[in-house]
Amino acid sequence: MTLFVNDISQLDVAFWCPQKGLSGASWAVDVELDGHLGEDGMLFDFGEVKPWIKKSLDSGPDHTLLVPTQAPGVSITTRGEDCIIRTTQPYAMEVRGPRRAFTLLPWPAINAERMAVHYGEQLSRRPPQRIESVRLQFREEAIEGAAYGYSHGLKRHAGNCQRIAHGHRSRLLIWCDGRRQPSLEQRWAERLDARYLVDVEDIIDQTSASLTLGYRASQGEFRLTLPRERCELLPTATTVEQIATWLVAQVSHQDAPLSHVRVQAFEGIGKGARAEAILEMRAWQKATPGNQ
Ligand SMILES: Nc1nc2c(c(=O)[nH]1)N=C([C@H](O)[C@H](O)COP(=O)(O)OP(=O)(O)OP(=O)(O)O)CN2
């Protein structure tokens, strides 16, 4: 007998890609459980499946940086409770933080299929009563239009979003004067894809070629150095509300100065924020140091 539950959870991660460098992914998770029925006529109560799978993924890979330790140029050092990851190609990056902010995987590259098999096997090792095996599927959201994978960290977040390199794959919608703008959406998605979104307040050191970001949050001390050209600088925290507001300001300024601009930004699958020029842009300008 097989029991299935689709969309049981979601994973939002950053991952190191040997071709693109630091990138972001969001996967919807489906599960299939094989086993036999109990006297209650059930294989496993649906009400218990979700917390079991979600808890395991949330305390594991979710909101971490997935590091393929066999990718060329990747090296790992541990220092006390911290982990330091260095890369050389396609570019040099160094990231440091508490060990649980990283998921080290002994592979040359990260992909959704391998991740699903790995975590399915892990869950199958200690299954609940009557379950014999667990299969997972990690599904990218099917997006017809523009989408981008980015990474960031929110130092003020009390939970795992404070981790300096976690990420998302997100849709992007832009309207000018009430009309969708697919080519603008595509252009901005290409610009933001595989970029790190920086809150300028987090910059603690810089050269002409690189930026170092750092902060202390409740889980520990975080540091990240990466090439400037791989970063997009925002004057605020990189919450999805602020990303939408920043995009409205950018599009209004660079692409459509005389239009009423509306942006719907997503943070991963199925949630996000909508912002519009003029009112919200004024509020944003007011809240941005140096813009008063
Ligand atoms: N209003 C906002 N709330 C949160 C934001 C944000 O930008 N605006 N951002 C975050 C984090 O960046 C986080 O990555 C969001 O991930 P999420 O999947 O929502 O986090 P959870 O794991 O807590 O949610 P699940 O339902 O378990 O997937 C947080 N909040």
Please give a quick description of this structure:
With 292 residues, the protein is of the alpha+beta class. It has helices at 46-58, 112-125, 182-192, 240-255, 279-287, and strands at 2-17, 21-35, 65-68, 75-79, 82-87, 93-98, 102-105, 131-140, 147-152, 166-176, 179-180, 195-199, 203-206, 210-217, 220-227, 231-234, 261-266, 272-276.
- Cα separation of the termini: 65 Å
* CATH architectural designation of the largest domain: 2-Layer Sandwich
Summed up, the domain count is 2
CATH-assigned homologous superfamily of the largest domain: 6-pyruvoyl tetrahydropterin synthase/QueD
What kind of oligomer do you see? single chain
Q: β content, as a range? A: 35-45%
Number of helices: 5
Overall geometric form: globular
CATH class of the largest domain: Alpha Beta
Structural class: alpha+beta
Low-confidence stretches: none
CATH topology of the largest domain: Tetrahydropterin Synthase, Chain A
Taken in chain order, the helices and strands follow as: EEHEEEEEHEEEEHEEEEEHEEH
Largest sheet: 7 strands, mixed
